[in-house]
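As noted in the main text, all predictions were made from sequence alone. Below is one such record, for Helix-turn-helix domain-containing protein.
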Amino acid sequence: MTDQILTLKEVAAYLKLTDKTAYRLASEGKLPGFKVGGSWRFKREDLEAWIEDNKTKVNGESSK
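Prediction:
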């Protein structure tokens, strides 16, 4: 399976955030995720695209 699904704890570790910060960002719609039975899940490829998109915004460029 090429689409790896991550839990909130795994995403927090991957992005070097606290669990609470990752949860807040997901709840606010700032992290690309979805809920399964009340628990957050994230596709690794969506997170990598989100990182690239936000990286260019920080540098003052637009990827669109």
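DSSP finds three helices and three strands in the chain. The first helix runs from residue 8 to 15. These features were considered when defining construct boundaries for the mutagenesis experiments described in Section 2.9.
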